Automatic annotation (TrEMBL):
Organism from which the protein derives: Alligator sinensis (Chinese alligator)
GO terms of biological process kind: cell-matrix adhesion; integrin-mediated signaling pathway
Claim: Transcription is one of the keywords in the record: no
GO CC, one annotated term: focal adhesion
Gene: FERMT2
InterPro entries tied to this protein: Band_41_domain (IPR019749), FERM_2 (IPR035963), FERM_central (IPR019748), Kindlin/fermitin (IPR037843), Kindlin_2_N (IPR040790), PH-like_dom_sf (IPR011993), PH_domain (IPR001849), PH_Kindlin/fermitin (IPR037837)
GO molecular function: integrin binding
Pfam families membership: FERM_M, Kindlin_2_N
Keywords: Cell adhesion
Residue intervals of the PH domain: 385-481
Keyword Transferase: no
Name this protein carries in UniProt: Fermitin family homolog 2 isoform X1
């Protein structure tokens, strides 16, 4: 700390060194701290040699860096009694990756968070850093406050094995950011011309971390930490994790997102503080197994923990499918790391070809199949059971002959009447589509929430079999986005739904597994605690055997998958869950009398009931004209087509966080594969900062 004092001798020195840059670079100057007096002065010290290039002045009172070194101190508004801190810009940060492992890194605390995250992702070879951000660690309100030592012990249990060493530093710190003369000053390896390399043992794509990390520990055995999944070793680890109990708890977690337009120091992040690196926006662009081994693994890890910690709902059949995929991935990861697999080059080529249709994009990717006649739009026509739930009604599903044309469904009492006027007609553009499936019970329902002037109309469709369900569900999803079945993604969507259902099948006569295979399953680490509680009155051994048997049954549906394909299937199954991709915030809508939830997804805003999570009203970004923020009263106003205006106040989070989510998704929607790899940072700030 330093205090600028105004005596005559010092004022003459300030005149000799009029700018902050000259102050810091003066060859015969240094800043000293004298006890608590904190007097800043210039002292002749020509014999002292130290690199001050990473240091800058920090004004604690104004929470700002003095980085415009051509400005005079007077232009910054600094008076004689101002306290300035002469401090390094790069500081130590404890970063928790999506796989829950901690790594110590040095990050530039003067950079905006968006830029700092980009540097972190470049160092870790994670493409599309705009999808990630930093989050403060949530506190578990159900637990009593622990001592700081206890928290540190809990974190150390998840520390990465092996130090991440800065070349030539001799410390266990990984340096993040473009530092002059350092290996990490490269602008990033990933590009369209990057050559993919495959692991010679298991055929899975391996990103070129050895070229990126040079002689560091990451190139000598540690790439597996980032690109290979590490199984949960003990149920106690899962039990210690914070699990949100309700939608309101999930909404409170999102209070911790850092402002991407401000630096870490400006947001009171302390040196050595623990922050979470997470995928913030659920819009994963160009997820390519050829280049994204680390990105895919970290995304798989985030989805895995979201399911285990019950941050997203799923059925029991889906949980067993996720558990089987986890078991399969864990087994292949261990075998791969121990070099126990011996795939041939032919198998590698087959994996490469099979994965060409598995790329996850905003619209589901592109298929390699040849398009049919693009002059005609496909249609669906079949008997479908339709149900419109109403209060105090006992009526059930009623069969109709339904035709699906463009984005509308027309319902007729019989096939013979299909040339006349329909009994019901629904336009699905902008609707909410939710699956309600139970494989063992042969239940294949589609829940539709169709926007109307007064709210949302709820319609349920019941299909007879998986094939019918897959075609109608795919058509409904596309129609909700304003697309027809002529879209190139329709057939791929149908195949993804059928594949998702197939993985949930239970084999009636499962093959007997050898004892050595069944003993390596730890079911308590593969399913969420909610499903273990179902058998709380049973003996622990019985529970373990029962869940193990169900996992092994489900495993037979995925046993032939390669490691990278299993991870991609896990991610796709996660994306197929009804609650996927919705970020919740507690809000009070204009004219409303109680707190509700505002849900933000990649393509829409959702007004939701805070207790049940049911959608009350949905607004698509495609119909949005503009959005504004009244910073004085913290109100967000969004204007849509047809003079629709939505205003709400966020009650427990800064409205800047919500504003950034909306602008962030708009920014992500502008990405295209034919663009170059560089990010338009200024456009991101214009859409998200609110004052640039």
């Amino acid at each position: 700390m330093g205090r600028i004092q105004g005596n005559r001798q010092q004022r003459s020195l300030w005149k000799a060194v009029p700018t902050a840059y000259q102050l810091l670079k003066h060859p015969a100057c240094k800043l000293l701290q004298m006890g608590h007096v904190s007097a800043v002065f210039l002292q002749h010290s020509a014999d002292v040699k130290k690199d001050w290039s990473d240091h800058a002045l920090w004004w604690e009172k104004k929470k700002t860096w003095l980085l415009k070194t051509h400005w005079t101190l007077d232009k910054y508004g600094i008076q004689a009694d101002a306290k300035l801190q002469f401090t390094p810009q790069h500081k130590l940060l404890r970063l928790q990756l999506p796989n829950m492992k901690y790594v110590k890194v040095k990050v530039n605390f003067s950079d905006r968070v968006f830029k700092a995250v980009s540097d972190i992702c470049k160092t870790f070879n994670i493409r599309h850093p705009e999808e990630l951000s930093l989050l403060r660690k949530p506190r578990d309100p159900t637990k009593k406050k622990k001592k700081k030592l206890d928290d540190q012990c809990e974190d150390e249990a998840l520390e990465l094995e092996g130090p991440l060493i800065t070349p030539g530093s001799g410390t266990d710190v990984l340096y993040i950011g473009p530092v002059k003369g350092n290996i990490y000053s490269s602008p990033g390896l990933y590009s369209k011309t990057m050559t993919p390399t495959y692991d010679s043992h298991d055929g899975s794509p391996l990103s070129p971390t050895s070229a990126w990390f040079g002689d560091s520990a990451l190139s000598e055995g540690n790439p597996g930490i980032l690109a290979v999944s590490q199984p949960i070793t003990s149920p106690e680890i899962l039990a210690k994790m914070y699990k949100p109990q309700a939608l309101l708890d999930k909404a409170k977690i999102n209070q911790g997102w850092l402002d991407s337009s401000r630096s870490l120091m400006e947001q009171e992040v302390k040196e050595n503080e623990a922050l979470l690196l997470r995928f913030k926006y659920y819009s994963f662009f160009d997820l390519n197994p050829k280049y994204d081994a680390i990105r895919i693994n970290q995304l798989y890890e985030q989805s895995k923990w979201a399911i285990l910690l019950e941050e997203i709902e799923c059925t029991e059949e889906e949980m067993m499918m996720f558990a089987a995929l986890q078991y399969h991935i864990n087994k292949l990861s261990i075998m791969s790391s121990e070099n126990h697999l011996n795939n041939s080059d032919k198998e590698v080529d087959e994996v490469d070809a099979a994965l060409s249709d598995l790329e996850i994009t905003l619209e589901g990717g592109k298929t390699s199949t040849v398009l049919g006649d693009i002059t005609s739009i496909p249609e669906l026509a079949d008997y479908i059971k339709v149900f419109k739930p109403k209060k105090l009604t006992l009526k059930g599903y009623k069969p109709y002959w339904c035709t699906f044309k463009d984005t509308s469904i027309s319902c007729y009492k019989s096939k013979e009447e299909s040339n006349g006027t329909p009994a019901h007609q629904m336009n699905l553009r902008g609707c909410e589509v939710t699956p309600d499936v139970n494989i063992s019970g042969q239940k294949f329902n589609i829940k539709l929430l169709i926007p109307v002037a007064e709210g949302m109309n709820e319609i349920w469709l019941r299909c007879d079999n998986e094939k019918q369900y897959a075609h109608w569900m795919a058509a409904c999803r596309l129609a909700s986005k304003g697309k027809t079945m002529a879209d190139s993604s329709y057939n791929l969507e149908v195949q993804n739904i059928l594949s998702f259902l197939k993985m949930q099948h239970l084999n009636p006569d499962p093959q007997l597994m050898p004892e050595q295979i069944t003993t390596d399953i730890n079911p308590e680490c593969l399913v969420s605690p909610r499903y273990l509680k179902k058998y709380k009155n049973k003996q622990p051994g019985y529970i373990r055997d029962l869940i193990t048997a169900r996992i092994l049954e489900a495993h037979q549906n995925v046993a032939q998958m390669s490691l990278i394909e299993a991870k991609m299937r896990f991610i796709q199954a996660w994306q197929s869950l009804p609650e996927f991709g919705i970020t919740h915030f507690i809000a009070r809508f204009q004219g409303g009398k109680k707190e509700e939830l505002i849900g933000i997804a990649y393509n829409r805003l959702i007004r939701m009931d805070a207790s049940t999570g049911d959608a009350i009203k949905t607004w698509r970004f495609s119909n949005m004209k503009q959005w504004n923020v009244n910073w004085e009263i913290k109100m967000v106003t969004v204007e849509f087509a047809d003079d629709v205006r939505v205003s709400f106040i966020c009650t427990e989070v800064d409205c800047k966080v919500v504003h950034e989510f909306i602008g962030g998704y708009i920014f992500l929607s502008t990405r295209a594969k034919d663009q170059n790899e560089s990010l338009d940072e200024e456009m991101f700030y214009k859409l998200t900062s609110g004052w640039v």
